[in-house]
Each structure stands twice: as structure tokens, then as C-alpha cells.
Amino acid sequence: MHRRSLIAGASLAIPAMGAQAQAAWPQREISLVTGFGPGGGTDVVARSIEAQMERTLGGRVLVRNTPGAGGTLGPARIAQSRPDGHTFGLVGLSALVVAPLTMDLPYRPFESFDFLGTTSELRLGFPVGPSMPNVRSLADF
Question: CA–CA separation, 90 vs 131, rounded Å?
Fold first, then answer.
């Protein structure tokens, strides 16, 4: 079993993890680490998961925003945490797939973490201004 856990889904898997523990779990507050700052899309999702985890576990969960280095500081913080089941993360695929191709990282994306699931998909729009009234689709562009 891997030493660290990576959360990217609903907290439904959390109670099963508590059953594996020797003592009552959680024994202290749980950290939910993100690789981006407060107020962005990742933070909004993290705070929603935080609330659900608190209801499910009956314990304190704190979102720990760790912005910087293209979202890779959050996973680095998770990888460096104690392997006691009290640190989870919400990590974008760029920090797990793209960053290892372009940066030296203090973690190994597919060996340092257990992947629990997907929370959301990012949809990007392609808006055009009023100076392009005939553009109604990407094909028009």
C-alpha cells in the first residue's frame, strides 16, 4: 500500500480507510491540500469536499492552499507529509502528467500517491468580442 493518499473525489472512500486504522481515526484534524490559491476553481471544489468530509467524519478538515510552481507545490506538500492518513489532496492533472515532463519534482506522481477518484472536469470557453459578429462557432473562427 502506498504511503500517501491523494483525494480527487467525494469522501465516500474515507470511512473504509478508518476501518484499516489501528486506533480511532481521525486522531487530529485532516488537511486537504490544493496546489492553487484561495478563490479559484480548485479552492471552490476543495471547500465543498471539506464540508462533506467534516459531515461524514465528524472531525475537523482544513483546506491548505499551497499555490505556486504550476500547481506542483501542493502535491509536493502531500508527498512530504507524515504517512498517517491525515493529509489528502486535490490535485490537477497538470501537476501529475505535464509537470513531470518539464520539471524535476520532489514526488513521483504515480508512486507517491493513491488516486481515489475524480471530482470535476474543467470546461474552457472561447469567447469572441462584438467586433466578430459572424463568429458563432470554432469552425467560424
Answer: 39
State the 10-residue block means of pLDDT for the chain, 141 residues long. Answer: 43 45 80 95 94 93 96 96 93 90 92 89 84 90 85
Give the CA radius of gyration of the chain: 18
Residues 6 or more apart from 4 whose CB is under 8 A from it?
78, 79, 81, 83, 87, 112, 113, 114
- Give the integer Cα–Cα distance in Å for 109 and 106: 10
Helix (H) / strand (E) element for 30: namely: strand 30-34
Instruction: Tell me how far apart the alpha carbons of residues 36 and 66 are, in angstroms, rounded to a whole number.
Output: 6
62: which strand partners? 31
Query: How far is the C-alpha of 111 from the C-alpha of 58, rounded, in Å?
Result: 30
